[in-house]
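Minutes, project check-in

Agenda point 3 was the complex the collaborators sent over. CS summarized: two entities, 724 residues total, and the question is how they sit relative to each other. Sequences were read into the notes so everyone works from the same version.
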Amino acid sequence: MSKISVTGLRKSFGYNEVLKGLDVEITEGEVVCVIGPSGSGKSTLLRCLNKLDELSAGTVIVDGFNLSDKTVDLNEVRQHIGMVFQHFNLFPHMTVLQNIMLAPTELKKESKADARATALKLLDRVGLSDKADARPAQLSGGQKQRVAIARSLAVNPDIMLFDEATSALDPEMVGEVLQVIRDLAAEGMTMIVVTHEMGFAREVADRVIFMADGLIVEEGTPAELFGNPQHERTQDFLSKVL
Amino acid sequence: MFRAGKLTVAVTALLALAGGFLGVSAAAANPSQAAVTGENYVIGTDTTFAPFEYREDGELTGIDMDLVRDIAANQGFTVEIKSLGFDAALQALQSNQVDGVIAGMSITDERELIFDFSDPYFDSGVQMAVAEDNTEITGYAGLAGETVVAKRGSEGETFANSIKDEYDFTVKALADSATMYDDVKAGNSVAVFDDYPVLAYGINQNNGLKSVTEKEQGSSYGFAVNKGQNPELLAAFNTGLAELKDNGDYQTILDTYLEQPAPAAASGFFGLLSDSMPALMKGLGLTLLATGLSILIALVLGVLFGFFTVSESRILRGIASVYVSIFRGTPLLVQAFFFYFGLPQLSGQSIDVLTAGVLTLSLNAGAYMTEIVRGGIQSVDPGQTEAGRSLGLGYVTTMRRVVLPQAVKIMTPSFINQFVMTLKDTSLLAVIGFAELTYQGQQIYAANFRTGETLLIVAALYFIVINLLTMLSNKLDKRFNK
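CS then shared the predicted structure for the full assembly.
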């Protein structure tokens, strides 16, 4: 069953066209890694899926919601899609626990007590039970990103978007974050992961998409794409990063 | 008939009441009296033009004040005196904010074009004075090559200019008598040309000057109403003036102020401090009231227009930007004049001085607050909004729970700064006659000529209050924005 369906997606910022017509189908439980050089439009693609960026043309259907339909309640759609950012974007004026509880309580999905219980469970899951009352400023980068993942999971999404979730981390902290994402994949979460971690993509992805210049150049299983890239751009990119 | 000397307010009120009864009984005999009986008129006057109007123990007194109150009592009407300053009083009269003006005002041809004057009630004239210890200058002839000072736009200035070529001196114009006398005492000017009653009164108050010439034949002072307005008030003034002259009351009033025998001994600094404190505290109260009201309204305006500046609507952004550029792009003083004098003339709706003052300060501070709010919101990382929105929170919730708590923390020091600025800006409202701290200080030194000491006290009060409030604000900031 198709969880995300993208057809003819275009996105321009002023005169600069960043996405030049993309078609993507993602089925339930699929883990898709998006790779490609900087400026190829990977992040913009993700931001179009929860409409942090407006679409210029094309259609995006997520969980049955057509994002081009003005009557669709974006706030509801976004509760189906969690997003994790490169720079964590934790709320600095709240404790770790408050960060995680904010959305469930504000959206009236859970009582305060229930939200607290859920938040503690999520913290346990990302291995940070002892940091519940810490402020974001007291955490390491890897810890911050794990809290950000827990925060996204708190609204119980069925799709997760990771936008270069490990790019801002010191190398020794990349592993702990990837482990959390790996666990999510194992639980059957539908995920789109924009990443520069080729080893991770090869290991975890069901499918890898290679983007360049606002277009999908090539896609396939990790074995196909990394083992036998068809396109010259793909070969060129992989030769530089592997 | 009753006689009145130097009146206290209580006595004036009693007399006004008595006059009211008399007015009723004499109504048939005197048509002008009938028209004003029982009426209350608002009379504008100068802040300080001793001995015609000045404050003693916080109460307005002087020749003009006694005269207009006695005439009111005699003619059966009541007056409410507004101490606005000379220029401000005339503007208030033109915009019908007041019914009449009595301010030691000379009757001139130019003024008669826009005002209707009463019969003259006092014959003035210009006199020259020099510093007490100056033995060299004994007449106009000694002025060669020197600078003299005169009040801007006054008869004294006109006279000084008329003889400056003959005696070869330079004329400098200043705004009020106290400043002019200080200028002479400080040696910046060698002599002052001022109206003789003012000068005589000042010398009797130990202002450190002495007069060295006879009074020049000058013009006469009159009570004024706006051209064509309040004819019955003008007629009643004339009738009352004639009656006071007949019954001797008029002469008693003049003697009270101009024949003062022994000069009062000057009290020390602490005497001045304790004498001036009640009036200054009253002023400080109004300063804080105006500041508090203005800051509250400015905060509302700042938040409202601040949100406009970060909104997606081009129209709302436009409105906010026009508002900010108007109130940041014009001087506060001009805005104060506009709201107090200009707006009533345009709208025909008079406005009291506190309302005009608060309107000015809050609209002005609101423009700065708008910029503070905009800056605060924009300085919060856009990633914060994206994180909030991607969790499914709406715009308002994201603003309220995520962006604003961070923005407020950033804005607080600027808010405290604006608060202090607005408190200090209230002093500008003295020019429209708002009786705040600076105004009270001006009143005091205009009557006792102790400018330096009085201003030191006023400045110290501002300093203490501002620093206390700043300390308090910083404490609150630390507590709530840890």
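Noted in discussion: The longest strand of chain B covers residues 40-45.
Follow-up: revisit at the next meeting once the mutant set is ready.
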